[in-house]
Amino acid sequence: MVPFFYTSQLEQYQFSESHPLKPMRLRLMLELIEAYGLFGSSLCLQEPSLSEERATVEILRVHTQRYVDIVKAISVGEPIMEMTRWGFSPLGDNPPFVGMWEAALAYVKTTVAAAYAVRDGESLAFSMGGGLHHAMPDRASGFCVFNDPAIAIAILRERFPRVAYLDIDLHHGDGVQWIFYRDPMVLTVSIHEGGRWLFPGTGFADELGEGEAWGTSINIPLAPETDDEIWWWAFQQVVPRAFERFQPDALVLQMGADPHYLDPLGHLNLTAQGWLRAVAWARSLGLPTVALGGGGYNLTTVPRMWTLAVATLVGIELPDETPDHFRWHDRIPTLTDHETPTIVPSDREYARRYAEQQVAFLLKVLRGV
Ligand SMILES: [Zn+2]
């Protein structure tokens, strides 16, 4: 059985009542996977057993002690000078909240547990409450306090010489990219809506890594209205070549569900089944894999996309119709999409041309290195 790390403490990670990052998306995913009967048959549902002290040591692989102290202070309501310096602000993406340290610790713990499971011999482990890819070493960003994918990569590097990070979230995986930007032993690949249109405003094709690590940072920015066909075409053109060249020994997979056409935060137009092709491709590599969640803000799409992703990675085909006894069966009747987004032809044409330009540039880079 594949370890699936989860704790109800993950559901405490909520910046405010009105914040788009809703813990309910995790609870519903858990219930849907449960309804399909995967726990106890294919997946072993486990609480991470890490102590707070130990989790802090893991956080310090990537983050500064000063930043950790600031997060702890904010978490107990201490007034902090220049809170925005650390990425927090009451009116911004990351409003401080009491209990933030414990809540952030929860997803760090599940991801660390998954990373150790894979480092110590499991071929796959899940931390679907993780994948918070925007956090910087000393700054919160984009709903992310700590960068658990980067911590997972650092843990895997203890056993695997070359680690790849694949990020299929709507947004650029900037925190992970910058943390390993000068590390030639870590490949970061992100396919996302381009920084011209969307937060965090980075992830352009010419962000390629520095020094010896040049060519180990790969970005495929795509235009608004990009659909399944364009997204998958760009993915196939670039990602397999990047992996082929890098020859990774292990994988950290960030599976943000926000490229979906019903997601409120972005403008990509993917369906669940279109997005899932990248997950199936990742599985086909046969690499030891730490599988993470990420973004995703539509409560009727995230639970089913992650259920599909989890099933795909463990190699199970689920009936498309969700079980009758699933709490949201009425609102999520099927796993895949049976409707497709309507796209204005000229917008689609622009998205296609934009993708072709990015791919042409990246293929030159990949052939030239
Ligand atoms: Zn995202």
Description:
The chain is of the alpha/beta class. The protein has helices at 24-35, 52-59, 65-75, 100-119, 148-156, 174-179, 228-246, 272-284, 302-314, 345-368; strands spanning 2-5, 43-46, 124-127, 163-167, 186-193, 217-222, 250-254, 289-292. Helix 7 (228-246) runs parallel beside helix 8 and helix 7 (228-246) runs parallel beside helix 10 (345-368). The structure holds zinc ion.
Helix content: 25-40%
Strand pairing plus helix content: what structural class? alpha/beta
Largest sheet: 6 strands, parallel
| Count of individual beta strands | 8
Q: Cα-atom Rg, whole angstroms?
A: 19 Å
Q: Label the overall shape.
A: globular
Low-confidence stretches: none
- Structurally, how many domains make up the residues? 1
CATH architecture: 3-Layer(aba) Sandwich
SSE string, helix = H, strand = E? EHEHHHEHEHEEHEHEHH
User: What's the CATH C level?
Assistant: Alpha Beta
Mean pLDDT: 96
Number of helices: 10
Task: Produce the secondary structure layout.
Elements: E1 2-5, H1 24-35, E2 43-46, H2 52-59, H3 65-75, H4 100-119, E3 124-127, H5 148-156, E4 163-167, H6 174-179, E5 186-193, E6 217-222, H7 228-246, E7 250-254, H8 272-284, E8 289-292, H9 302-314, H10 345-368
Parallel strand pairs: 1-2, 3-8, 4-5, 4-7, 5-6, 7-8
Helix pairs in contact: 1-9, 2-4, 4-5, 7-8, 7-10, 8-9
The structure holds zinc ion.
